[in-house]
Amino acid sequence: MLHTLSHSPYHCDIDALLRCLGPGDALVLLQDGVIAALANSETASRLLRASIPLYVLQNDADARGVAAQISNNFSLISYTQFVQLTVQYPQQLAW
């Protein structure tokens, strides 16, 4: 399943999201959700423990001025790559 987080980790139930992540899943952070991927943040550390592919939409990180602060453990992706992920993961859940 492809999970998408579009809200700041400070304004959503990140614990519920983490409980729902499982093997074979992936997570894309977009809009204000890109804040969850900031290097050395508690939220990024918690997401990394899920051991799933983690992606950040490059345009949204750029728009918020945080692209240089994104953890190296997250893959920055384009809109085209995001669309490819939606094809790869037919089931999706938006947070």
Topology readout:
Elements: E1 2-5, H1 14-20, E2 26-29, H2 42-48, E3 54-57, H3 58-63, E4 75-77, H4 79-88, E5 92-94
Parallel strand pairs: 1-2, 1-5, 2-3, 3-4
Subcellular location: Cytoplasm
Function: Part of a sulfur-relay system required for 2-thiolation of 5-methylaminomethyl-2-thiouridine (mnm(5)s(2)U) at tRNA wobble positions.
Keywords: Cytoplasm, Transferase, tRNA processing
Structural class based on helices, strands and sheet pairing: alpha/beta
Characterize the main sheet: 5 strands, parallel
Which stretches are poorly predicted, pLDDT < 50 over at least 5 residues?
Answer: none
Q: Give me the oligomer status.
A: single chain
Q: Considering DSSP H and I runs of 4 or more, what fraction of the residues is helical?
A: 25-40%
User: Strand share of the residues?
Assistant: 15-25%
Organism: Brenneria corticis
Protein name: Protein TusB
Function: Part of a sulfur-relay system required for 2-thiolation of 5-methylaminomethyl-2-thiouridine (mnm(5)s(2)U) at tRNA wobble positions.
InterPro entries: DsrEFH-like (IPR027396), Sulphur_relay_TusB (IPR023526), Sulphur_relay_TusB/DsrH (IPR007215)
